[in-house]
Design a protein that fits this description.
Rossmann fold, two-stranded parallel ribbon
Length: 153
């Protein structure tokens, strides 16, 4: 790989992702799941490889930012890379034991990040990764967020 090639590829990916995210809406059961989790006395946080400022704006636009104790996205100017090192920092910032964490993710990168920190994980088919690819992780797979939250309890 030539100097600067990774940064160009990463920037192109994030630009394309941002364009697609502008038109995204919540999954049908998302608000009920978020409310139910908070109402049960549990906490939740959000970690994404999307730009932090864009992530926070989108969470506010969707009306879900108040359901999270912490929202972390990528800091300006940092390349995405793998999610594992970002998961380490996220868990440390929450000051919780990773073995108490359930990661609900929609990609193999989410699965690897959870395994890297020692958290449990369940993978949701409503994202960008196919069910077949998610199944290769050996982790539980769910079709809905309601199923993911049920798995947690």
């Amino acid at each position: 790989m030539r100097d600067g090639e990774w940064e160009l590829l990463d920037q192109a990916f994030h630009d394309h992702y941002h364009r697609l995210m502008l038109s995204c809406a919540l999954a049908e059961d998302a608000l009920d799941c978020l409310r139910g989790w908070v109402d049960s006395g549990r906490t939740q946080s959000l970690l994404s490889m999307w730009a932090h400022d864009r992530l926070v704006r989108k969470a506010e636009e969707l009306g879900i930012s108040g359901y999270f104790n912490r929202i972390d996205g990528l800091s300006a100017g940092l390349p995405g890379g793998g999610k594992a090192e970002h998961m380490v920092a996220h868990i440390e910032s929450l000051a919780i034991d990773p073995s108490e964490v359930l990661v609900i993710g929609d990609s193999l990168d989410d699965a690897h990040a959870a395994q890297h920190v020692g958290a449990s994980a369940v993978l949701y088919t409503g994202g960008m990764t196919s069910r077949a690819d998610l199944s290769a992780s050996g982790l539980p797979i769910v079709e809905t967020l309601t199923d993911a939250f049920s798995h947690a309890t």
